[in-house]
Each structure stands twice: as C-alpha cells, then as structure tokens.
Design goal:
The protein is α+β, with helices and mostly antiparallel strands and 280 residues long. It folds into two domains: 166 residues, no CATH class; 104 residues, PH-domain like (Roll), CATH 2.30.29. 26% of the residues lie in helices and 29% in strands. It has an eight-stranded antiparallel β-sheet with strand order 3-4-2-5-6-7-1-8. Strand 11 and strand 12 form a beta hairpin. Helix 1 packs antiparallel against helix 3 and helix 2 runs antiparallel to helix 3.
C-alpha cells in the first residue's frame, strides 16, 4: 500500500463491514473517490447486469476525475494514443469523485458482494482529508485499511461498534508480537500467524487468523484449533500436496513461545481478536 495506515479489516462479512465503515467515515472526511473498471460492464456479459444496474442508479452522484486522482500507482507514462479517454489510467480504469448523495457510495459498495464482476468493477475506494488518504479498500481482495491517526480518538471504538453485528473486526497494522524459539521466528502480523520457513526456502508461511477457532495456553505453548477447510476440493488437494513436500507449510496446531510472558501476551492478543471477530 502506498499510504500510512494504523488498522486493517478482518472480515467474513466483508461487504457489510465495508458499508458500515464507509458510512461512519464519510462525515469525517473531505472527499471520497472510487476507481472503476468499465470493461467489467461489457454489455454482452450477463453476470454484469447487477453491476450495470447499480452503477446506473448511482452514477449521477459521481464525477470523473482527470488522471488517476488519489490513486497515484495508476499513473504511469502511457502514450495518449493507447488511452481510451484522457481520464483513463494505465489499467483502463477511471477515477470518480463523489459529488452527490453519500448514500450513493454506500450503495456502490454493495458491488463487493457481487461475484467477480462487481468486485472488479469497483476496483478501489479511497477517502481523503486534504492530500492524505485515510481509508482505502480493494473489494476483489477483500481488503480495507484506515489511518486512525487522522481522526479523533473515539473513531476506532465507533467503528468497532458499527461492526458489532458482523463477523468482522479491525486489528492494528504491522507486527503485533514477534518471538524466536530454536532459531525459528514466529509473528502475529495484522491478521495472520506467520512462521519462518524451515524448508530452506525464503519467506514465511502465514495463516489467516479468520480461520482460527480457539486458542489456549499449555505451558509455554499455544494450542490452536482451526475451522474446517471450506476451500474448493481441488484447492484442498493441492494444499495437501504442498504440505507433503514442504512440512513447514502445515497449519500449526501447537506453537512454542520463548517464555511464559510471551505465551500470555500471544494468547491474550489472539483471544481478543477472536472475541471481536466472532461477536457478530
């Protein structure tokens, strides 16, 4: 991401969470923008019908922006002859600013619930104060981040209350806790548990904590239980094959901690996250 942020969203109910956070944040910012990919609205593509209808309903509340607007990563040197219009970015998307009823943006956010087409049509959402982007969302990756430092202290608590009916929560950005045992490093990083690979390959193996079902302490170990794998069967088979070839890729059910204090803190962080995530 190109901007500073303090919190990220973990959500199963992503669309509801997106709408709730946008609704709470809009009155606190100066401008709101969306990046739209009109190729997704191909008139001959039946799955695009709901997205076309939604955009037709709300488009009068939006005004196209010359260039990429608050999406600077979209601005690259592309010959004018290769652009569809003067407003296109290098991806063929167009930035729009909200100039009408704020409810139009909330309605547009429902496209995050559409399979594939709507999620890709609504490429990104960004809310700004001055020149600073204070909220960003990428629906097709089910990602959302905020810079809470740009708001009053009660803002994060207000968002937590707005998410209370959904399986969703905000967690602090960055690495929240890190420790090493027997030369291997473990990290609680935003919404993931990451374990340093022991296979000789670079990089960590990470598991999304939205799959975590429970956590408890046993001595200086964390004992983790995980929700059943709901991924498509071919993906499960591929994952099983990877675990066979790369033992370090197996989902961790027992995680060693370096001392009782680390065990306590890690269990506390995971328990708090689970409680906030599951309360909906």
């Amino acid at each position: 991401m190109l901007h500073d942020y303090t919190h990220v969203l973990l959500a199963n109910d992503y669309t509801d969470a997106l709408r709730a956070i946008v609704a709470e944040t809009l009155p606190r910012v100066e401008n709101a923008y969306v990046l739209l990919d009109h190729d997704e609205l191909d008139g001959g593509f039946d799955p695009a019908v709901p997205s076309r209808k939604t955009w037709t309903t709300v488009q009068d509340a939006f005004e196209p922006v010359d260039g990429p607007g608050p999406f600077p990563e979209e601005a690259v040197d592309v010959p004018a002859s290769e652009r569809m219009t003067c407003r296109d970015t290098h991806t063929g998307c167009t930035a729009f600013q909200l100039v009408g009823d704020p409810a139009a943006l909330e309605q547009l956010c429902t496209l995050a619930d559409e399979p594939v087409v709507g999620q890709w049509f609504l490429q990104q959402v960004r809310l700004t104060s001055g020149r600073d982007v204070v909220l960003g969302a990428v629906p097709h990756h089910q990602k959302l981040w905020i810079d809470a430092d740009a708001f009053q202290k009660e803002y994060v608590n207000t968002l937590a209350d707005a998410l209370v009916d959904y399986q969703a929560c905000l967690v602090s950005a960055g690495t929240r806790l890190e420790w090493s045992v027997d030369g291997r490093t473990y990290r609680l990083t935003e919404g993931s548990l990451c374990v340093e690979s022991d296979s000789g390959l670079t990089g960590d193996s990470c598991w999304g904590l939205t799959r975590l079902d429970s956590v408890r302490k046993e001595g200086t170990e964390l004992v983790l239980t995980w929700k059943s794998d709901e991924r498509p069967f071919p993906v499960q088979v591929l994952s099983s094959g990877l675990r066979t070839m790369l033992p370090g890729a197996s989902i961790p059910k027992r995680v060693p901690c370096k001392d009782p204090e680390t065990t306590e803190r890690a269990c506390e962080l995971l328990t708090e996250m689970l409680a906030a995530y599951e309360r909906g």
